[in-house]
Write a structure and sequence with these properties.
The protein is an all-alpha fold. The protein has helices at about 5-35, 40, 50-90, 105-110. It is elongated, with a radius of gyration of 20 Å.
């Protein structure tokens, strides 16, 4: 079943909220990484880490940040694609790409960029 106008408006708001959150995350991590040198980031007093575990911890933090930016960037792409679909053909938005059946509104509320029923 196609979404009502109020449901589409709600999903558009949700998409914009999710987009804003993802942008805040990506921009925040990028700004944090650009702001601090490796020494400042680690809180080291010298250019040589005091303990080898410090290097491991620093690399783990970098890996977590990279994973978060990668995930958020992928979500941004999905959100932008969903907004394009919504604006291009609002009457078809919310239909499963696999089956053509309506995606449950509860699913779209949680994952507003969802393309499929599952």
């Amino acid at each position: 079943m196609p979404l009502t106008t109020s449901q589409r408006d709600h999903i558009e708001r949700r998409l914009r909220e999710e987009r804003a959150s993802a942008l805040i995350l990506v921009n925040g991590i990028a700004a944090e990484r650009a702001r601090a040198s490796e020494q400042e980031e680690a809180g080291d007093l010298s250019l040589v880490p005091i303990h080898p575990a410090d290097l491991g911890s620093d690399r783990q933090d970098e890996d977590i940040d990279l994973a978060n930016v990668t995930r958020a960037s992928a979500e941004l792409a999905e959100i932008d694609a969903a907004l394009e679909r919504l604006y291009a053909s609002p009457e078809r938005f919310g239909l499963c790409e696999d089956t053509g059946a309506g995606i449950p509104f509860e699913r779209l509320d949680l994952i507003p960029w969802a393309r499929t029923c599952e």
